[in-house]
Every structure is written in C-alpha cells, then in structure tokens.
C-alpha cells in the first residue's frame, strides 16, 4: 500500500474535527498548540489521556471537546474529573478510547500514545475510515503488516519528524524511481562514545536529549538508537521500501529531517526547525500548508551541517532492530515489547544502559517468527516477549 497517491489530494473538511490520543504527553500538548493557533481550521472534539486527569480536565476547559477518555480505568474516578466542562462526555478504559476513535463527529485521530498500546487505537481509527495522524511508531513496528492494507491513500499521515520529512519529499514523485531513504538521526547524547563508557551511563544523563523535547521512554530509545531502528521499520512499512534501502544518517544539528534519493542520483531533503509542531501541523493541513507554528530558521546563521554513520557494534539496539526488521513477521513485535520492558527497567535503575540491548537480544533469540495475521496474535506475542524480558532482567539484576 502506497500512502502517497494523487487521489489523496482532496481538500479536507474545514474545520478539521480532531481527536487527540495522548493529549497530556509531549506530542499531544504540542498538537494542542497547533490547534490553538489555527482554531479556524482545526476543532478539538475529543481528548484522551492515560492517567493525568487533572491536566486532561485543564485541556478540556480550554478546548471544550465533546468527549474525553481516561485510558487507565484506575483513574476513571479521579476527583479532578468532577471539574470537566458541562456537557463533556466521559469515557474510560481501552474500550472508551476505541469508541472515541470511531465517533461520527471525528474526522482525524492523532495517535500519540506511547508504546504498543497505540496499535489498537490506530486499528480502530483506520477501520472507521478516519484520517490517522500517526505519532506512534510502535503501531507499525508491531502491526505494520496488519495496518498498512487498511490505510487508504491520504488516510495515514506520519507525524514523526523524519517520516513527515520523507512524506513531504515524496509528494509528486514516482515511488518506482526511489533508490533509497536517508533517515537522519541526531545521534543522541552519546554519539562517538565507546561501549565501555556507555556502560556507565545513568538514566538521568540519558534523559537529557541534545535537540528534541520528548517523553522519557522515547528519549531513552533515542539515546540507545533503538528509536532509529524502530523508525527504519516504520519507514519500511509506510513507504514500501526494503529495510536495507533505508540508511540511518547521523546529523547532530537536526536541521535536515530526512532525505530521499532517486535512481538518477538526485536527492531531495526536507529541512526546518527542530520543532515537532511543524510535522504535527502538516498532518492536520495536508495537502495544504498553514502559517508556521514556530520561529523559522535563518539559514545565513545556521552554521555547518554535518553527517556521519552510526556505530552499530556499539549501539547494538539499532543493529537488533534492523535484524528484526529484515526478518519481519512477529519478530519486530517481540523486539519492541522487550525493548519497552528493558527501557523501563533502566529508567527505574534495575539494569544498566547497555543491558537494554542484552535483554532485547535474548528475546529475539528465543522468538519463533510467524506471519502477522491478527491483533489477538500481536497481543499474545507482545505478552510472551514481555514475560521473557522480565525473566532476563531478573537474571541480570540478581
């Protein structure tokens, strides 16, 4: 399935009625910034959060959605929810989030929840023929074989800065003439470090990303370069390009957000500020462009733009993700689940930084790869991989 197609170049309804899943997270709050700036073009009709109910209520009071959902049922009775605006419907649990995605008064669903949970929301929204603005790469990592056939042209718009860049570079292009994708990467805070030095990294140090403001899980993934491996698999599904034709390119300045190279040797790049609101806004505005949501770059003062190669022998998470991506089937799902568990264990001080790769590798080695056939299967693979990861972590932390 090619998500870029001339049939997608139809003007959307105005205002675009959006549901924002993960509204209290980094992407969600930036999306609401975009909505506030372009209130004549975007209407927030639904919000969902996992546990931050006080923040969710504050957002509801500002944007007056028709419905909100609390994904974690343990927080569905929080006292803060008593302050929801009059007439705002309250849903709870995973079923509540699914219902929100399928409402008739929703045109576009921004899926910005973290981790494997995003696949169920993406599936529900695509099944209901909504536009999906996808900021959850794990959805395609775990279930790309299932989700992509559901995505009609123009109905799945990537929000990750790199994939938005590729999507923009490919507008008007013949996908058959694409030679390779250059997927850029800041390199994280430890670019150039050796394995011995990485073994001493603390969670506090790893959470200090040099360029982007992100949630803690994604920030750690960026430090291990697992995030870039997940993005390679995501790009493989989105743009129907083999994993080995997607090259990770270290670019510390984070001004070139990715590039596409064509068969004649020409390369087209998308450049801009290191601000996620641009990619979020393009997902809402596509195929149009709106006034910038952030200060632009004065290229006279931009300085040097440098590039390099990742060292996969040191940053083993990237190598493992590429291995899983090449194998396909259920292996990326298992790999992703193991990484989520190991990432959390590192942030909680249970294992070391380089142990994350060891946990992921162990799960990969014990996973039987099968074709992806259903959400139920993905859930089972995810659960088994998490259980195995916890077992490995228990051995490492003894």
UniProtKB/TrEMBL annotation:
NADPH binds at residues 24-27, 50, 136, 138, 215. It catalyses: 2-C-methyl-D-erythritol 4-phosphate + NADP(+) = 1-deoxy-D-xylulose 5-phosphate + NADPH + H(+). Its EC number is 1.1.1.267. Residues 271-387 form the DXP reductoisomerase C-terminal domain. Pathway: Isoprenoid biosynthesis; isopentenyl diphosphate biosynthesis via DXP pathway; isopentenyl diphosphate from 1-deoxy-D-xylulose 5-phosphate: step 1/6. 1-deoxy-D-xylulose 5-phosphate binds at residues 137, 161-162, 186, 209, 222, 227-228, 231. Catalyzes the NADPH-dependent rearrangement and reduction of 1-deoxy-D-xylulose-5-phosphate (DXP) to 2-C-methyl-D-erythritol 4-phosphate (MEP). Residues 156-239 form the 1-deoxy-D-xylulose 5-phosphate reductoisomerase C-terminal domain. Mn(2+) binds at residues 160, 162, 231. Belongs to the DXR family. This is 1-deoxy-D-xylulose 5-phosphate reductoisomerase. It is an enzyme of class 1 (oxidoreductase). Keywords: Isoprene biosynthesis, Magnesium, Manganese, Metal-binding, NADP, Oxidoreductase. GO terms for biological process: isopentenyl diphosphate biosynthetic process, methylerythritol 4-phosphate pathway involved in terpenoid biosynthetic process. Residues 18-144 form the 1-deoxy-D-xylulose 5-phosphate reductoisomerase N-terminal domain. PANTHER family: 1-DEOXY-D-XYLULOSE 5-PHOSPHATE REDUCTOISOMERASE, 1-DEOXY-D-XYLULOSE 5-PHOSPHATE REDUCTOISOMERASE, CHLOROPLASTIC. It comes from the Bacteria.
